[in-house]
Amino acid sequence: MTASSGLSARRDDSKGGEFPKTRMMIRSRSRSRRKKGCSSKAKLHEDRKYLPIYKYRADLLKAIEKFQVLIIVGETGSGKTTQIPQYLHEAGYTKRGKVGCTQPRRVAAMSVAARVSQEMGVKLGHEVGYAIRFEDCTSEKTVLKYMTDGMLLRELLAEPDLSSYSVLMVDEAHERTVSTDILFGLLKDIARFRKDINLIISSATLDAEKFSDFFDSAPIFRIPGSRYPVEIHYTKAPEANYLDAAIITVLQIHVKEPPGDILVFLTGQEEIEMAEETLNRRIRSLGSKVAELIICPVYANLPSEIQARIFEPTPQGARKVVLATNIAETSLTIDGIKYVIDPGFCKMKSYVPRTGMESLLVTPISKASANQRAGRSGRTGPGKCFRLYTAYTYHTELDANTPPEIQRTNLASVILSLKSLGIDDLLKFDFMDPPSSEALLKALELLFALGALNKHGELTKVGRQMAEFPLDPMLSKMIVASAKYKCSDEIISIAAMLSVGNSIFYHPKHKQIHADNARKNFHIGNVGDHIALMKVYNSWKETNYSTQWCSENYVQVRSMKRARDIREQLESRLERVGIELTSNSNDLEAIKKAITSGFFPHSARLQKDGSYRTVKSRNTQTAYIHPSSGLAEVRPRWVVYDQLVLTSKEYMRQVTELKPEWLLEIASHYYQKKDVEDLGPKKMPTWFSYK
Ligand code: CDP
Ligand code: MG
Questions:
Q1: Which of 61, 228, 486, 518 sits at 20 to 30 Å (Cα–Cα) from 252?
Q2: Ligand 1 pocket mutation pick from 40, 46, 82 by most atoms within 8 angstroms of CB
Q3: What's a GO cellular component annotated to this UniProt protein (predicted)?
Q4: Backbone angles phi, psi at 135, to 5 degrees
């Protein structure tokens, strides 16, 4: 075993009598599903009674009736997310309006809605639905609506008093995402003037006093947990490579430990895919000596058909290993987990207002996270947690809690939403934990530079148009500006492709050269990454959205379909803000100018040493073109970029060449002549190749 010394958590014996029932339920549920679910609906209905929350159903409903705002705390898996909205429905709340339940993560919103629709025996999207950015799976019939917290924030723009809702449940409140934090302030206000609305703030952490304090001493309803003992193992010495250590630990558990599924916490999709590949290889090399190991990846962008697999019961004799991001910490509960492997890291966003640099870095988790992770193994029986770090690290190096996202993110998008809700004085906004004034100021500065706010800090017409798009303000500005350059058609394709993320192209290991060549085709003429994305989209469209075209060009069809969906929505929003759809695909300069109109704060100039420096003099920053960019070798003298990400270096992703005079033409209020004075080719080293 990689991990050694043991330390047992205490067992909560008071609920001992309930355990056998829970176990019985798990077994019979597996059986009924295997029988191809003849009475699976009835079974699911019956199963609901064995969840820890069920005993408190009546008390809970009484408390909700009595108190307008209620804080509910209960361990992960107790049934908060799936049951409370159903209880409210059964108690008649949905006659007065919808019951909305927010989730910080898309995958959780989708999978929970799917589960609840099964339990209620209705079609997903009918009585039970979900809404996530760019995907609305609800209908007029929908009474239970699961959604991301960001979606509810957007709904508030259209319906400031949320009059179509009777209850709102802000779930997973402990995650403290920016959207959840902003919702706290807004919902608290709504509850003051809408006495007929109920608010439920639910959380998996025991530290609920803070929520209660914020909501004017709202009462706390605690659902007693029924957790089995969890044996915690630490490594004796720090692990040099936690991914390797995690894989070895999985194999050791698989070979040596009694039946029970494994949950491994990794930091992101790439890492999960790497682990999946390595595990598959090692298992194959062990041959038929070992039992079957079913590998289930779980991360944010996982397609829904694969998502469903994680919840399928493990067949007899096999073992399941779930490779998950933080999402499995509290958002999703997977039954049957007996072993948890915790390398102690997660990907965390951070933001430096001074430089405007956002980064997503692998960071040590907090003690609170470590405890949540360990708890995942003791839900349906005694469990074991293997921490791939030392006891010393746990006790002395991990922070107690993760700081809320609002204190480590760029606030421009949130502030634009607040401004369009008419909240002008942000310093007076009721934040649970206020962001730094530097971050607030920086966001206001950016919105002013983009023309979304006037010099009094009021929303402009451009700002109102921008707020209609569920996108980062720079992307929204690019779209709004495209009207001027008569290329809105091209620009919304680019915006849609950028919104899909970095999953457009794929690189199978054995066909890398072919994949690279296919990709280079779109970059002919060094058009830059934005226009290359547009070409990919247009070429796909020309083949009538052909799947075969995608595979021939090493383009992921799933990502393209998503881009098409997003594009459709952007198109309808264009109409709403009164911008005509016009195409100007041959005028690349016009398209680049529209891009620059949104992204001029992200411009950079080539330096003598081959690096770039961001142009704005006060907070200039060194960066490099990401190797995946079509311009990585070309290195134009002036560029605009979509994102600056810090991985091994500061990289600019999605880069387009610009002419420095455009900066003065487009953003004369932001750049001065001296900012864009060209160094001229003479001062550059001779080994550079210019276009
Ligand atoms: O919200 P909380 O963590 O308290 O629990 P929940 O998400 O309501 O989960 C209650 C039960 O439903 C758990 O035992 C899960 O295994 C099950 N569930 C499921 O089978 N599939 C889902 N997509 C969600 C929950
Ligand atoms: Mg939950």
A1: 228
A2: 82
A3: catalytic step 2 spliceosome
A4: -145, 115
Given the CA of residue 75, which atom of ligand 1 is nearest to it? 4
Find out whether 62 and 213 touch, Cβ atoms under 8 Å: no
Give the helix/strand (H/E) hosting 493.
helix 488-500
Q: Best of 333, 337, 372, 376 to mutate for ligand 1, by most ligand atoms within 8 A of CB?
A: 333
Burial 431-441 (b: 16+ CB within 10 A, else e): bbeebeeebbe
Q: Which residues contact 120 (CB under 8 A, 6 or more apart)?
A: 86, 127, 128
Q: b or e along 360-370 (b: 16 or more beta carbons within 10 Å of the residue's beta carbon)? A: eeebbbbebbb
Map out the domains of the chain with their CATH numbers.
54-223 (3.40.50.300), 230-405 (3.40.50.300), 429-576 (1.20.120.1080), 600-683 (no CATH)
Query: Whose Cα sits closest to atom 13 in ligand 1?
Result: 77
- Are the beta carbons of 324 and 273 closer than 8 angstroms? no
| C-alpha distances out from residue 166 to 94, 120, 225, 677, Å | 7, 20, 28, 59
Can you read off the two tokens belonging to residue 398? Answer: 């991990």
pLDDT-based confidence at residue 647 (cuts at 50, 70, 90)? confident
User: Tokens at residue 313, please?
Assistant: 């019961």
Q: From the CA of 78, how far away is ligand 2's center (Å)?
A: 8
What's the mean pLDDT in 297-320? 82
From CA 209, how far away is CA 402, in angstroms rounded?
17
Pairing mode of beta strands 357-364, 6-8? unpaired
The C-alpha torsion from 562 through 565 and 568 to 570, rounded to 10°, is -60
CA separation (Å) from 276 to 99, 316, 327? 38, 22, 17
Q: In angstroms, rounded to a whole number, what is the distance separating the alpha carbons of residues 570 and 563?
A: 10
What residues does 124 pair with on adjacent strands?
Answer: 128
98-103/230-234 β-pairing = unpaired
Confidence of residue 583 (pLDDT cuts 50, 70, 90): very high
Contact call for residues 640 and 656 (beta carbons, < 8 A): yes
Distance (Å, whole) CA 409 – CA 387: 29
Q: Copy the structure tokens of residue 389.
A: 């770090």
Ligand minimally distant from the alpha carbon of residue 47: 1
Q: Judge whether 117 and 96 are in contact, CB under 8 Å.
A: no
Q: Could you tell me the distance, in angstroms and rounded to a whole number, from the CA of residue 77 to the centre of ligand 1?
A: 5
**What amino acid is encoded at 165 in this protein?**
Y
**Mean pLDDT, residues 543-552 taken together:** 96
Instruction: Quote the CA–CA distance of 332 and 348 in Å, as a whole number.
Output: 19
Q: Is 333 in the pocket of ligand 1 (CB under 6 A)?
A: yes
Q: Could you give the count of Cα atoms lying within 13 Å of 424 in the half-sphere of its Cβ? A: 9
**pLDDT value at 38 more than 50:** no
Task: Give residue for tokens 């595979």.
Answer: 551
pLDDT surpassing 60 at residue 110: yes
Query: Does the pLDDT value for residue 619 go beyond 80?
Result: no
Q: Identify the three-state secondary structure at position 194.
A: coil
Note whether 116 and 137 are within 8 A (CB): no
Q: Give Cβ neighbours of residue 300 (< 8 Å, ≥ 6 apart).
A: 105, 106, 107, 269, 325, 327
- The encoded tokens of residue 625 equal 């073109």
Per the CB < 8 A criterion, the answer to whether 329 and 110 are in contact is no
Percent of the chain at pLDDT exceeding 70? 91
Q: Cα(first)–Cα(last) distance of the chain, in Å? A: 57
- Please tell me the least confidently modeled range out of 67-71, 157-161, 303-307, 603-607: 303-307
Q: How many CB atoms lie within 10 A of CB 41?
A: 14
CA gap 376, 392 in Å, rounded: 22
Q: How far is CA 244 from the centre of its chain?
A: 26
